[in-house]
Amino acid sequence: MSNANPLELKIAGIQMVSTPGLQENLETASRLIKTAALNGAQVAVLPEYFCIMGLKDTDKVSAREVFGSGPMQERLAAIAKENGIYLVAGTIPLEAKNPNKVLNTTLVFNPDGQRVGRYDKIHLFGFQTSAERYQESETIEAGEEPSMVKITIDGVEWKLGLSICYDLRFPELYRTLGQVDCHIIPAAFTYTTGKDHWEILLRARAIENQCYVLASAQGGTHQNQRRTWGNTMLIDPWGTVLSALPEGEGFISGVLSKDKLNEVRSKLPALAHRKL
User: Fold this and answer.
1) Which positions are annotated as active-site residues?
2) Are 235 and 212 contacting, i.e. CB atoms less than 8 angstroms apart?
3) What is the Cα–Cα distance from 43 to 84, expressed in whole angstroms?
């Protein structure tokens, strides 16, 4: 886990084209995480719905687990431990108050396989045209609490903001989280909205919060005929895209630098200029 420069953190964003098969998706995730770890990643991030992209929306309700136990959570903890990395495990469906719904939850595991972070998606996507309809609130219960996770590697603390997909459109969530080193955003943006809004929103969040943004996406046409936008990307605090994967399965990697964060924040101290 050690790095030549402790003020740098190597991070990987994994892109998938998930299927309705839970085991198949876990195998794919495991394989891609292993490759990213062998490539030097200290943190790996999976996309939203990495574990299941069902043929119907209720499939994820059938796959839900109780928080703290279940085969998905056990496997994710094992993957983090096997590879000696921090794993931001995209999203999995967890039991909600409503038995017909789930929480769409990001869990974070440390290199010992312990769970060290959790975020339940707050903003639920709704979109309708004559050809497409999505209504997450029919099967997902909204989370209520913003969340970040702090990790320490080689004595250096890194603050990672946690948000999911549609949250990207709500800048007040990111302001609420305060100053972080990187916002981590697992996503499954639709092709329709992604081609027009994805990159511009990600870069805006990086620029206005003067931090890195890593967004891990679903990227392709799924068995349920839904098409996701892909374009997993890492963006620096100046808004520059450092790495991107347009579509298909794979991963990107890059380095977060404390020096770069300090440079941007000192030459343009916008966060210190806030009035509201």
Assistant:
1) 48, 121, 165
2) yes
3) 9
